Amino acid sequence: MKNLLIIISAVLFLTSCEKEIEYKDFDFKNFLVLNSILQEDSLMWCSVSSSKSIIEEDKELDIVNAKVLVYKDDNLIDELKHRNKGRYFTENNIKVEQGGKYKISVSVEGFKDVEANTEIPEKPQFNINYFKKEKNKYNVGITINDKKGHNYYRLKTYILKDGVRFYLKVKTTDPIFHDNKTYVENENSLNNTKNNFQIFNDDLFDGENYELKFSLEYGNWTFNNPTLNVELFAISKELYLYYKTIEAYKEKGDNGDDPFSEPIKIFSNVKNGAGILGCSSLSVKSTKIN
User: Fold this and answer.
1) Cα(63)–Cα(94) distance, integer angstroms
2) For the chain, how are helix, strand and coil distributed in percent, rounded to 5?
3) CB atoms within 10 A of CB 251
4) Which of 136, 262, 237, 112 is nearest to 187 (CA)?
5) What is the pTM of this model?
6) Which residues 6+ apart lie within 8 Å of 134 measured at CB?
7) Regarding the domain delimited by 125-237+278-288, which CATH topology (the fold level of the hierarchy) does it fall under?
8) Is the pLDDT of residue 241 over 80?
9) 137, 215 in Cβ contact below 8 A?
10) Is residue 43 within 8 Å of 89, Cβ to Cβ?
11) pLDDT above 70 for 13
């Protein structure tokens, strides 16, 4: 058998990239790639594309003629329509609702039908309980009011100045940022990876209030009485695993091929295809910086 590389398009939180997956069988059929990250109280959308082999350089990845159906709690609620470059949106102003169980199914002539499911989590509860400005950085502490059960989070911060957001990278030695042990295939290959997506779970504080301390370096930026905004997302487990495996995949690529390392398999919850259907709910807290 000849080895063949299939290139598929993957959406990384409103940005896109390409990855290569190696297949051992030359006799293959291209498959659909479904991507969507739904956010509570936002409009329904998704992107649909196709895998392709490296010998199909002139073939478009974007699928513009898909039938995209959206179900909520097993009831058909909408059919998304193509707008541009393989992106499909609601024309009925259907918004994502907290607690809803959603399924997106996609059918395209010549491909196997694909579908994926996700459940919108409740908004996370937290407060800013500590803030101190130092030279070129802010020290921040937040308390997360975690609910019992498996919960997954993403943390983002930004300075708001004149309507423009300046995002700051979170730096912390807190173990919840570095010792997440949620099971995923080839778990050992995910240990000690970077956490550029700033995700974590509640394995160490399930059902408790937890204080997370971190710093934000702003370098030589000059702000006059700006506002610091802390965004805490409750994210679905599938989105957490997707981000975690993407991080490991990118890090392995940055370090070059290691013949002794386990291959990184990008997590996907799309049946008969590839990609991700994930979701999040957002809570924001702000503090004025003097």
Assistant:
1) 22
2) 10, 50, 40
3) 16
4) 262
5) 0.85
6) none
7) Immunoglobulin-like (2.60.40)
8) yes
9) yes
10) yes
11) no
Residue with tokens 């609601």: 90
Given a cut of 80, whether residue 68 has pLDDT beyond it is: yes
Which tens digits make up the pLDDT trace of 118-136?
Answer: 999 999 999 999 999 888 8
Residues making up the chain, counted from first to last = 290
Q: How far from the centroid of its chain's Cα atoms is residue 239's Cα? A: 5
For 4-119, give the CATH class.
mainly beta
Whole-number percent of the chain with pLDDT over 70: 79
CA distance 80 to 83: 9
Which residue's structure tokens are 């939180």?
13
The residue among 90, 92, 91 whose CA lies nearest residue 104 is: 90
In sequence order, what are the residues at sequence separation of 6 or more whose Cβ sits closer than 8 angstroms to the Cβ of residue 206?
146, 148, 149, 150, 151
Q: pLDDT of 33-55, one tens digit each? A: 999 999 999 999 999 999 876 55
- Where in the chain do CATH 2.60.40.10 domains reside? 125-237+278-288
Beta strand 75-84 with 87-89 is antiparallel
